[in-house]
Amino acid sequence: MQSNGISQPYTRGQALPELLKQRILILDGAMGTMIQQYKLTESDYRGLPGNTRFADHPGDIKGNNELLVLTQPQIISKIHEQYLDAGADLIETNTFGATSVAQEDYKMAGLAREMNEVSAKLARAACEKYSTPDKPRFAAGAIGPTPKTASISPDVNDPGARNVSFDTLRASYREQIEGLFAGGVDLFLVETIFDTLNAKAALFALDEFFEETGERLPVMISGTVTDASGRILSGQTVEAFWNSLRHIKPLTFGLNCALGAALMRPYIAELARICDAAVSCYPNAGLPNPMSDTGFDETPEITSSLVDGFAKDGLVNLVGGCCGTTPDHIRAIANAVAKRKPRVFYKESAEESA
User: Fold this and answer.
1) Is residue 107, in this structure, part of any structural domain at all?
2) From CA 346, how far away is CA 344, in angstroms rounded?
3) Domain count within the chain
4) How far is 188 from 141, CA to CA, in rounded Å?
């Protein structure tokens, strides 16, 4: 088994550290972008008419994409398979907002654990369908930031105010982690981090889970730079962000969402310079454009060319797509970087360098 360098060998996802040394791995693209193409109605989100479980649930639930694993699982499975067919090595579970904290908006906090376990099972089944001895596929348990922030006041008149506590986030993430693990994920992906304190709550919950269960899975960490200042929303520069979380010894560390690949380049280059972990990058398909069919303008050719530039210059180990990207984007990215060597992020042993 591969050692994570902390205290225990990985119990799943053991092959990933070595694969990251051999080639640039491919992550899937946007789930929300693909769901939007189905133009689902409120009734569709409830699973009607075939599924009456949520027929009388109070309030609107249209837009609760995480619920679809319970009401429209065939759609989520199809999207997973489309990305795998496009060449993805890793696919994310449909659990970005599947925490009790996020699901409170839909009065569905009590469904969080079930959503995570079912979503993980769907992703795991898709991976098993497409895995081969030469190209194993992996299910990454997606852990999003929640709609709340532990570091920033929601009230400009009260800088000390907070709408969520560290302990609340920690408990919510722990529930999510347990569901994802029970469903069979190979690794965890704490992603789209705009507040490092939120991320620390998730990572603390992960470490507690690993220590208490004796199970340890690879952990990927991905932040989001929100503007040209080069900082995440809670104020850290990319270098400070890395230094505040490097003790986790993540499998990969990188950036996603927010800026498109063109504007993300200097920050990926900075991480490539300072990280002793594999570097990941899965950008949006450019900047938002509400007039576009996907909400973003970049074609697969444009996005893949930009991402290939990162690979050509030896900056990345794992690439994929975020908002606005589709299986066509992922296929183009996979084809573009197939000829590139991965960034060296480890010290070679005497045998490896011989």
Assistant:
1) yes
2) 6
3) 1
4) 5
**Residue range of the domain that includes 214:** 16-30+73-346
CB atoms within 10 A of CB 129: 12
The DSSP annotation for 96-145 comes to TT-SHHHHGGGT-GGGHHHHHHHHHHHHHHHHHHH--SSS--EEEEEE--
Indicate the residue type of 321. Answer: G
Would you say the pTM of this structure is higher than 0.90? Answer: yes
pLDDT of 291 over the 90 cut: no
Q: Is 335 exposed, middle or buried (0-12, 13-18, 19+ CB in 10 A)?
A: middle
Instruction: Give the pLDDT score at 288.
Output: 85
Confidence (pLDDT) at 346: 79
Burial 270-280 (b: 16+ CB within 10 A, else e): bbbeebebbbb
Q: What is the largest CA-CA distance in the chain?
A: 67
Give the DSSP H/E element, type plus range, for residue 183. Answer: helix 166-183
Q: pLDDT tier at 153 (50, 70, 90 boundaries)?
A: confident
Would strands 187-193 and 138-143 be described as parallel, antiparallel, or unpaired?
parallel
Specify the pLDDT at position 287. Answer: 86
Which pLDDT score, from 0 to 100, does residue 348 have? Answer: 57
List the CATH number of the domain containing 231.
Answer: 3.20.20.330
Type and span of the H or E element at 220: strand 219-223
Is the pLDDT reported for residue 45 higher than 70? yes
Neighbours of 212 (CB within 10 A): 9
The 10s digit of each residue's pLDDT in 236-251 is 999 999 999 999 999 9
* E strand or H helix at 197: helix 196-213
Residue 332 lies inside a defined structural domain of this protein: yes
For residue 281, list its beta bridge partners. Answer: 255, 319
The dihedral built from the CA positions of residue 335, 327, 329 and 325, taken in this order, carries a sign that is: negative
Query: Considering the domain boundaries, does residue 230 fall inside one?
Result: yes
How many other C-beta atoms lie within 10 A of the C-beta of residue 293? 12
In a domain, 248, yes or no: yes
Residue 180's nearest CA partner among 146, 140, 222, 223 is 140
